[in-house]
Amino acid sequence: MSQKEELHLNEQQIIQAVVDVTDLPFSLQDHLNTCPMCLAQKERFSGLLSQLGHKSKVLSPTYRKRVTLTEANGTKSPWLWAWNWQRLLVAGLSCAMVLAVLWWASPFKIPPEWQESKAYYEMWEDYRMMAEIVWLEEHALPQVYFDISGESAPLISEEFIQFLIPHIQNDAFHQFKTKEVQYVV
Amino acid sequence: MVAILKPNRRYNEADTSDKEYQVANLAKAARTGDRESFEKLVTLFQEKIFQMVYYRTFSQMDAEDLTQEIFLKAFRSIQNLKEAHYFKSWLFSIAVNRIRDFKRKKQILAFVGIDNRGQGFEEVERKIYDTPQADNNLFKQEFWECLGLFVKKLSHWEREVFLLRFLDELSIREIAQSINKSESTVKTHLYRAIHKFKGDTNLVRLLQGERR
User: Fold this and answer.
1) In chain B, which residues have pLDDT < 70?
2) Cβ A72–B68 below 8 Å, yes or no?
3) Are residues B32 and B66 in the same domain?
4) What is d(CA B203, CA B57) in angstroms, rounded to the nearest whole number?
5) Nearest by CB to B50, which of A43, A55, A63?
6) Which of A63, B116, B175, B208 could form a disulfide with B50 if both were Cys (CB 3.0 to 4.6 A apart)?
7) Which residues are within 8 A (CB) of B143 and not within 5 positions of it... i.e. 6 or more apart?
8) pLDDT value at residue B5
9) Which of residues B83, B100, B118 is at a domain's end?
């Protein structure tokens, strides 16, 4: 009797028997089959776990809908597909990679000779602009001053000015004055 | 008590093997593109999958949506099922993965602040108090609360294995196939989970009290 008592399954062995009775050593399996105390203990514990499963089933709500397989035929909206952020991220990264590759090996890049001619054109543009600035500096007065001064009048030429105000060396008075001076001397 | 249980168990085993045979035949037909067979499989498993999802999300709406998604995924990839008699394990593995994805997504959304709905039992609790039979639902509330608290004490794999074994009633072999682990690993996790269950006096008392 005392030997039988020693052989009773402990708590760990009972749990092991609940998990899988075949995992117990044969001696303990034999004992479990013959000892009503150990068997009852094991059944009580298994019953408790079964009760847990049963209660969960009873207390959980019932499935109100019915599964439909319509979406599997391709009726799912493409926007729903796109809404998945992971897919959006992957799509964005793919686009960025494609653009980078296209930029790297672009056939539309500006060739170096075009770049040289562009530089020459820019230089000419600068020169033209500087000339314009110089002209503006030189002709800073408004037109009315030029009109008064007569510079802009087409009829007032150098010859006409000469006629109005003859050159001092060709002047008769000047010649007379010089003769008079000579006489005095 | 034991003597009464044994004949029932034998009857259930025979019933189960018949059902397994039927499921395997339907899965074989569904694999060749027979939509009707797949619809029969849906009828057989939709309640089970719904409950399985509910035990892990505690939200009826989420469980319904996920059940729909799980079956759609299964329908799309039924050709990938190699062994027809593993249909149940295969379906549960899809469900386990889908629930894991769902929870991960929910965690990210909650972290970002987009989804700040209460996780776990808050939602269940609110629903219970909102129903007209609030008194009758007190036990329901207590049960789910106790179960939720117990489940939180378990590690990821302990929880998964425990729920698959005792709430979803899968065999060790089926669990191993569903979570892609060896049977000995499953047993180890199960052993640890049961040990913790035994230590959870609240849940054990609740179950014992109900049995009396």
Assistant:
1) 1-16, 112-136, 210-212
2) no
3) yes
4) 19
5) A63
6) A63
7) A55, A59, B206
8) 37
9) B118
